[in-house]
Structures are given as structure tokens and as C-alpha cells.
TrEMBL record:
Residues 1-25, 50-79 are annotated as: Disordered. Residues 50-65 have a biased composition (Acidic residues). This is non-specific serine/threonine protein kinase. The keyword Lipid metabolism does not apply. Belongs to the protein kinase superfamily. RIO-type Ser/Thr kinase family. It comes from Phytophthora rubi.
Amino acid sequence: MAAICPWRMTTAASTPTQQSSSPTLQEIMDEELALRLQDEEWIQLAELDDSEVLDLDDSEDEFEDKEPVPVSEGHDGYDDYDESYDLGDDACSDDFGAGPGFNSLRESMRRQAKHEGHRGTFLAKSHIDLGRNGSGAQENMFDELTQAVLRKLMNKEIVTAVKARVHTGREANVFHGLGLEKATGQERELTLKIFKIFKGDFTRATECDPTGRRYGMEYVRKNIRRHLKAQTEREYKYLSRASAALATGTITETESVGRCARVPKPFILREHMLVTEFVGADGHLAPSLGDARLSGAQLRSAYTDLLRAVRRLYQRARLIHGQLTAASILYHNGQCWIMDLGHAVEVGPESHAKMLTRSLDN
């Protein structure tokens, strides 16, 4: 080869000088080993005889202990053989189909086919029935996250309908809804307090970090959702503590005289949504203490009830309502209802006398 093609030796010799990097010793050894194994495989395949590869007698001896398949009269056995290898759309059978491994593989394929068939159903958004007889709130009033939360609550029948918006605040919107009580199965009125995600002061407060650098919108939205969820959990916790503190049970004899103001009973919270007891009747929210028309006796009774409630919240629940005003108090069925417990603060070593005095003055 060197005499016939002398240029090959010169090319091979000049290659290392032309290339910037030569192959390593390990790469050369791996390539030689791969070529040697490939040559040995081809030699072994060439030495095999066709009779040894397709020896049907040996394959029959391996199954001689098994009972033959019964053949009905009029059949020579070849019809069943052809049917077992029918490659139709729904038929793919062979002798190895009885093994547990093949059954597991077939089950996995069946589940995958089922998932592919229902993929459109999984991705499609189901319609939320927010009202009855066309009188409820519309679905486009809520963002995607709120719709997902409402869909989960309606699937569990905690909320059966969302009727209308009854109050609009700076931080949240309040809706009137209906739900089923699990203990009795009866329908009850609910209050759905949904904190705003893309509106309010939260967006402006979290647009920049302490250094003044602006955040991305995706980070701002995640931070807002995290903040609103923490605020919802805090209000749920304070409502639970206040509801237990303002219960009918008394501690001293002086507290048993007269009634006490109440707070809405919390039922459940999901993300930025809080479901509580509805304070009102027939879908109409109760008027605030400033808008209600009360007589002198009713005003005196409301004043004593609020003083008793403030004391119980301070002594039992260890809470102080930070923004207790006439607008945050509802009057329903001759009784005061304290709202917006999310602004409450816990009694601690810090200075809270000013907040308590301000609440009493208001």
C-alpha cells in the first residue's frame, strides 16, 4: 500500500503537525478496542450456520413439557397460529404476552393512551357557575388565580354560588355567596373576602427593592401573592381567636351582665380568599354603625357592648384592634359586629397603649 499510494504516508505524517491538538493515548486505545470487537462479532456471525440460527427442533424441545393447545375438529392448528399473529389495530399478541413484565408494560401503554386521549380535557378550563338563574356575579370579574380557587371550593361544595359584590375596599373586595353546611346539609350565606392582587398599594410598595432597583413584573406578582396569603392567614387566625374570646362563656360575674359584640366566624381560607360568616340578610350587607339609625337606648347598649368586647379581646385573645372605627363596625339584629381584624396587633412588650387609647376614643 505504501508503494502504490505513497502519498498516504506523507499525509498521515503531516496530519499531527497540521492539527492543533492530537488525540490522546486513551482515545486511540478505545478506538482500537472498538474496531477489534466489531471484527470479532462479524467473524462469529459469519461462522454461524443458518440451520443453527433457525433450528425449530430445538425450540420445540424447550416446550415439550407443556400441554398442547386443544384443537377443535375441522382445524389443523394453522388457523389459530395465524390469528395469534394478526397485526390489527387493537390486536398485538404473542407467546410472551403472559409474562408479568409484559402486563406491566401493557398497563403503562394503556394509561399513556388514556392520558393522551383526555389531554384536551385536562388543559381545558371548566366553566364556573358563579350564580343561579343568571343573577350572580360574572366569571370575568375574577383573575385566573381567583377562578382556580373558586373552582376548588365549588367542587367541594363549600361554595355553591357567588351572588354579587357587597363591598369594595382599598385592599379587598367582599362578595356575597352561598354554601352548604356539612353537619346539617342546609344552605347558608357566606362572605367571600378576596384580596386584590393587581391593584391597591401593594403593587407600588413592592415595585422596588431597598436600593431603588426595580423588580421584574413576575417577581412583583409572586411577592404580592406571598404577601396577600400571609395577610389572609393572619386575619383568619385573629378571627378565630376573637371568636373564641367573644363567645357566650364568661369568666367573671360582671361579664355575664349584658351582651357582647361579635365577630364573623371564619370557615376556610384559600390563598388570598377568606370565607367567613355573612353579616346581613337576603344578600344585603348589614349597615355600619355610622349609617345605622339607632335610638338613644340602642346607642348606649352598643357602647357598653363594644367596651366589653374590647376588654375581652385584650384579656382573652391578647389582641388590640388597630382601626376600630364606626366604619369597621356593623350593626345587625341589635348587635355590633367588629370587622377588619386583619389590622389587629398582638399585645406584647412593645408600646401598645396608644393604639388601645385610640380604639377607645374612636
